C-alpha cells in the first residue's frame, strides 16, 4: 500500500482501527511515562490515524489534539474523541501556533511525510521550549514475527521483501532527532505482541488494504507462514517491536 496516499489510508481506516489501532500501546506508555506527561499536559499526535493514542492519552488526563491527512481516519478519531482538537492535514504544515503543545508525538506515521525533517521541524515549532518531541515506528524486520509472514507473501508473489527504512534501524530515530536540532533524552525498543483471535482475523489483519479476491488467494500463504505462531486454541500471537526516541531542545 502507498503509505503517503491519504485516500488509501481512508479506505482502510475502519480495518486499521479494528486490527492495528490499539497495538502500539506499550510504545505510547513508554513515551508518555518518560516525558513526565501528567493530567493537563497538552499532546499533539501527528498522523493520528483513528485516534487510538489520543484515546489513551485522554484516559490519562492529557489534553489532546491530532492531525491526519486521511479524511476517514479523522472522522473516526473525531467520533471517538469529541473533546479532542482533531484536524485534517499533514505533518509538513501543522495548523497550530508556535509553542502550543507540551509534547508532539508521531507513531508509525512520520516516515510517510514527503520530507521527514520538515515534518519534524513542524513538530518542534508547535512544542514549547521545554517540551518534548517523540517519534516511534516499527523496528527493523528481524525484530518482528510479522516479517516472516510478509516475506512469505512477497516471495509467493515473486517479489523480494522491501528493505527496512533508515528509521527502523538501531540509532535511526536518534539520528533523525539530532538532525532536527533536538537533544535525545530517551530512546529504546519495546515489544508489541499482536493477537489474532482466529485465522480470518490473522489473514485480514496482515492483508489489510487488499481486495477480497487477493485476500482469498493469499490466505493460504499467510496461514502456512503463521503456523508457528498458532496456539492450541487456534489463536495467534506475533511478537513485534517498535523503536522510539524522545527529544527536547538543547538547553
Ligand atoms: C500506519 S498509520 C498509523 C496511524 C496511527 N499513528 C497509529 O499508530 O495507529 C499511518 C498514518 O499516517 C498518516 N499519514 C500519511 N502521510 C502523512 C503525512 N504526510 N502527515 C501526517 N500523517 C500522515 C496516514 O493517513 C495514516 O493515518
From TrEMBL:
GO biological process, alphabetically ordered: methylation
A single MF term (Gene Ontology): S-adenosylmethionine-dependent methyltransferase activity
SUPFAM superfamilies linked to this entry: S-adenosyl-L-methionine-dependent methyltransferases
Keywords tagged on the record: Methyltransferase, S-adenosyl-L-methionine, Transferase
Ligase as UniProt keyword: no
InterPro entries the UniProt entry points to: Methyltransf_11 (IPR013216), SAM-dependent_MTases_sf (IPR029063)
A Pfam family reported for this protein in Swiss-Prot or TrEMBL: Methyltransf_11
Domain Methyltransferase type stretches: 44-134
Gene3D superfamilies linked to this entry: Vaccinia Virus protein VP39 (3.40.50.150)
Name assigned to this protein: Methyltransferase type 11 domain-containing protein
Organism encoding this protein: Phytohabitans flavus
Amino acid at each position: 500500500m502507498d503509505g503517503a496516499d491519504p485516500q488509501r489510508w481512508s479506505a482502510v481506516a475502519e480495518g486499521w482501527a479494528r486490527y492495528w489501532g490499539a497495538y502500539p500501546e506499550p510504545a505510547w506508555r513508554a513515551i508518555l511515562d518518560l516525558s513526565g506527561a501528567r493530567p493537563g499536559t497538552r499532546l499533539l499526535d501527528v498522523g493520528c490515524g483513528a485516534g487510538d493514542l489520543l484515546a489513551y492519552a485522554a484516559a490519562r488526563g492529557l489534553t489532546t489534539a491530532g492531525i491526519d491527512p486521511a479524511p476517514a481516519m479523522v472522522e473516526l478519531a473525531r467520533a471517538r474523541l469529541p473533546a479532542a482538537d482533531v484536524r485534517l492535514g499533514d505533518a509538513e504544515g501543522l495548523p497550530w501556533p508556535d509553542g502550543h503543545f507540551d509534547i508532539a508525538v508521531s507513531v508509525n506515521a512520520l516516515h510517510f511525510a514527503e520530507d521527514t525533517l520538515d515534518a519534524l521541524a513542524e513538530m518542534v515549532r508547535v512544542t514549547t521550549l521545554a517540551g518534548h518531541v517523540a517519534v516511534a515506528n516499527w523496528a527493523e524486520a528481524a525484530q518482528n514475527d510479522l516479517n516472516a509472514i510478509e516475506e512469505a507473501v512477497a516471495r509467493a508473489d515473486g517479489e523480494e521483501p522491501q528493505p527496512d527504512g533508515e528509521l527502523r534501524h538501531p540509532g535511526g530515530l536518534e539520528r533523525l532527532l539530532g538532525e532536527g536540532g533536538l537533544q535525545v533524552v530517551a530512546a529504546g525498543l519495546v515489544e508489541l505482541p499482536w493477537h489474532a483471535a482466529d485465522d480470518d482475523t490473522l489473514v485480514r489483519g496482515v492483508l489489510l488494504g487488499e481486495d477480497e479476491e487477493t485476500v482469498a488467494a493469499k490466505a493460504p500463504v499467510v496461514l502456512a507462514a503463521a503456523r508457528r505462531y498458532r496456539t492450541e486454541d487456534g489463536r495467534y500471537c506475533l511478537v513485534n517491536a517498535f523503536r522510539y526516541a524522545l527529544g527536547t531542545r538543547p538547553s
